[in-house]
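Reply to dn_fold:

You asked what the input looked like. This is it:
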Amino acid sequence: MRVPDDHQQPTLRQAILQQTIASALGLTVNAPATTAPDADQLRDALAMLLGEPVRDLRSLGGGSTSETFAFSADQHDLVVKTNVNPVVLGRAAHNLAVLAELGIPVPTVVAYDDSLRYGPLAMLVMTRLGGRDLGLALPGMSRAQMSAVAAQIVEMQRRVSTLPANTGFGYVGIGEIADRSWLDVVRFPSSTRLEDPWPVDCVELIPRVHAAIDLAEPYLNNVKPTCFLDDVTTKNVLIEDGILIGVVDFDVVCYGDSLFQIGLTAASISANFPTSCAFYIDELIRMVDPSDVERAILALYEAVFLTEFVAVESPTIRQPLGPGEPAELAEPWRVRAITTANHRLDEVESFFAR
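and this is what came back:
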């Protein structure tokens, strides 16, 4: 989950990046939840809202502002997202309705309560889609299956791009006014500013990324504020038996360059997956048919996110290093991420040096 740009908090955005990598690795990382409801209270609240007994309530995890639960009611498998701020869930319900009208396979909203009359939290009840995250399924998928999923994601982005453009850029609800520049979004895709002291293995990489963004500034300044689904990456894309059955988690969308989503997906796969999974990225790129400059920009976006992963994911690995910390810096995913980021920056520099 992302949060709107006007509500970004460094700890939450860092948790979001942690969830991106954890999902890619098949792990579960839950940020400290400040709004975790009492299970009995939530069960009673749902029963009153739905008019049906609630069974098998269990947490699916959460962040610093919300938590999601699975449960059954009237022979239906459902999920409920809770949040102390009704506006957040109202935005999510609106986004889901708009996306459903476009034919995007999203959960159906069953009930939404922002009155807080059932307890201290707003509730958004949705149908529960089956399957599991693409990141868990991808290593076992055939090339034909990867290609089919890539085609569906590209088609979803095409449909979403037909929504009215924004006047600004960044992460907001569909139709809400965004007020950032695209250059700012690329420089700071999370609200965490990469400042000294940097992790020791990023000391050379971070300035190189900033320099590459400077090279690409003419392109970035000409990006149109087009709506796209920014987080249908190795998570939030649900797969069953190699087939895409739905997409989830639309608290916000992004306005800007939809290639950004491919860059994020590529970064996750480059750092965490077997090389055979790179075929999925190859197919995404083939299907959007980028120009030469767009290929360079895709390389830049991947490098940006890889750098975010290694710099933001390890806030305790700072200079000077303490005893035992060098071993952490040798974690395989970090080595892959930094190596790949440097290779992508080679591509960017080579293109703009023409």
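The domain at 5-12+32-127 is CATH 3.30.200.20 (Phosphorylase Kinase; domain 1).
Hope that clears it up.
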